[in-house]
Amino acid sequence: MMTNTTNKLHPGSEFPEISVTMRSGEQQILGKAANTNGWQLVLVYRGKHCPLCTKYLNALEQYLAPLADIDVEVLAVSGDSKAQLEAHLEKLDISFPIAYGLTVEQMQQLGVYISDPRSPEETDHPFAEPGLFVVNGEGKLHVVDISNNPFVRPELGTLVNGLAWIKNPDNDYPIRGMHV
Question: What are the GO MF terms of this UniProt record (predicted)?
Answer without folding.
Answer: peroxidase activity
